Amino acid sequence: MWGSMTGWGGPGWGWFGLSHLLWWALVVVAIVLLARRAVDRGRQPPPQPPVDRALEILRERYARGEIGKDEFEQRKRDLAG
Questions:
Q1: What is the pLDDT of residues 21-80, one digit of tens each?
Q2: CA dist., res. 75 & res. 69, Å (int)
Q3: Distance (Å, rounded) from C-alpha 75 to C-alpha 3?
Q4: Domain ranges of the chain
Q5: CB within 8 A of 7, min separation 6: which ones?
Q6: For residue 42, how far is the Cα from the chain centroid?
Q7: Could you report how far apart the first and last alpha carbons of the chain are, in Å?
């Protein structure tokens, strides 16, 4: 009695109900992702301190042992002044 005259009837919603449910799940997921992207875009990373490349190279050379402590300190003073 629940079926239709075409023979496609039957209990429950069948594939139509499942596809309808999946469609709305996809819509909700898309809305959530778009909302998260909008919120994340409003945030800005904290500003980075300026990098003194020359001092960074000097520190690397000192760490590798290419220059001694006295030379490191002298060049560091030269760069600061």
A1: 899 999 999 999 999 988 887 777 778 777 789 999 999 999 999 999 999 999 999 988
A2: 10
A3: 90
A4: 1-44, 52-81
A5: none
A6: 13
A7: 95
Q: Counting every residue, how long is the chain?
A: 81
pLDDT category at 13 given cuts 50, 70, 90 is low
What pLDDT shows up at residue 31? 97
Q: Could you give the angle at the alpha carbon of 54 between the alpha carbons of 49 and 56, nearest 5°?
A: 60
Instruction: Output the CA–CA distances (angstroms, integers) from residue 19 to 13, 14, 23, in the order listed.
Output: 10, 9, 6
Matching residue, tokens 């959530």 = 32
